[in-house]
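sorry for the late reply, my laptop died twice this morning and i had to redo everyting from scratch. anyway the thing you sent over, i finally got around to it. pasting the sequence first so we're on the same page, its 188 residues, then the predicted structure underneath. double check i copied it right bc i was rushing
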Amino acid sequence: MKRFVLPAVLLTACGGKLDAGTDEPYSWPGGFFDMSSYEVTDDCLDGGFSALLLPEGEGSTSEWQYPVELPTWAAAEAPVTYDINLQDPFSAMEVSVVQGSANGQFDVTSDGQEGVVFRSSADGDCLVDMNISALIVLEGAENVRGYAELRITNATDGGTGVCPTDPFGDPFTTPCSVDLDFTGLLTD
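ok and here's the structure:
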């Protein structure tokens, strides 16, 4: 009788599945998520974008102004394309979301943003163009985490000198990247 106690305990601990060969396909319900940024790595301006994306500084979080919709896992078998709203100085942006290379991962790409006001003064604006891509990890039905790359492809200020410069006084070099780490919770 003692031989059957251990298998019964293991079956109970493993959710009671008797046939391990009948895995159900991965699924995820999707929904709208409140996102918060918590870390920025700025390889463009040595922290200039950090102030834009994390206004309270390192070690803080910054809630995104609008919830972001994520599709169901099944819907993202082929790319799902739709618009998301982003806070100022960014504008609405079209994104494509598709299942990633592993269950529970979405790859997100966009056509990017043009003419984002990075810095403004009485002399004019520093405008940047960027492409945005992200990896979103589905940690459960109600929470996600993600990693985004903002690839700055161009910066212009019309010769006004509004765009930041490097320590030698030269305009910052593009292309360059800003990495953003974020989390998300399902909205109520």
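The chain has one domain: 36-186.
thats about all i looked at so far, will dig more tmrw
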